[in-house]
Amino acid sequence: MKPALFKTKVIDARKTVTRQDVWDQFCDDTGLQHAYRITPEEMDALKTVALLGNLKGKQDILFILRQMRGRGR
């Protein structure tokens, strides 16, 4: 008989993660925001852009941030 913990992991692994889930995880990660020195203006811009396309994780949002910062230089 398989332990209940194994079943829980399988169910969680199959859960669909939405753009909103990724955005919420990013917003909750204040350590990451401080490390990248993300300004409130950048957060507003990222929120708009992040909710328009497909996101698989926080790394996608950081990619968008790097692209936004690179355009102004």
Alpha carbon gap, first and last residue: 60 Å
* Percentage beta strand: under 5%
What radius of gyration results from the CA coordinates?
A: 16 Å
Number of strands: 0
Low-confidence stretches: 1-11
Largest sheet: none
Itemize the secondary structure elements and their pairings.
Elements: H1 4-14, H2 19-28, H3 30-35, H4 40-50, H5 58-71
Helix pairs in contact: 4-5
What does it look like?
The structure is a single chain. Mean pLDDT is 80; it is low at 1-11. The protein is globular and about 35 Å long. It has helices spanning 4-14, 19-28, 30-35, 40-50, 58-71. The protein has 73 residues and is mostly helical. 71% of the residues lie in helices and 0% in strands. The protein has one domain (17-71).
Question: In a few lines, what is going on in this structure?
Answer:
The chain is mainly α and 73 residues long. It has helices at 4-14, 19-28, 30-35, 40-50, 58-71. Helices cover 71% and strands 0% of the residues.
